[in-house]
Amino acid sequence: MAAVVQGPRGTRILIDTPPELRLQLVRARIETIDAVLYTHDHADHIHGIDDLRAISLRSGGLPIYGPAETLERLGQSFSYIFDAAVVPQPGTSKPELTPVPLEPGRRLDVSGISVLPFELDHGGTRLFGYRFGELAYLTDVKSVPESSLALIRGVRVLIVSALFDRPHPTHFCFDDAIALSREVGADRTYLTHLTHQFTYGELMERLPEGIEPAHDGLVVPFDGHCVPG
Predict the structure, then answer these.
(1) Can you give the pLDDT at residue 1?
(2) Residue-range domains of the chain with CATH
């Protein structure tokens, strides 16, 4: 699963590179990306990385950001991309990506968009969530440290994963996501990383007001920006 944050000047930050990324970008009519943020290195969030090939070549290279250990494991898993000694054969190419490790709690400007990374727990795996002004994006989360809660309280829009209606060892369930929404005081909350156990209509009926399931192609305007899902 992926999302794109678009700034007021049209710059775009991609969050994660899941399988079939190219098809998702084509469907959303997105041809250019200015940077990539990684949350963590599980397969469903990274295995579309080679689809950055054409985008990175057109733009003269792409910076990719994320937790230091995530970027290190990307380098190990996709050495043909990150090993400078691996030179493409004439007539071929590889993604041109520059890893930039992030520190939680340290805000930075990425292609003109303010990004604040913060730590989350994914059942023993550290990952990053990201705040963009009035919106916070959290995926694959099992628990949120108090230090990270302090960074996202007051957001107007919350995008958070929720797997089932029952507890799970590495993911939020619906009740967890609802509790977080109330804790941070979000006006609107969108649940993502959902399973096929419930239909969109069923979730709309059972979720509280102001909380709804996200869906493919969803566009969420916020703070002069937007997030196409």
Answers:
(1) 77
(2) 3-221 (3.60.15.10)
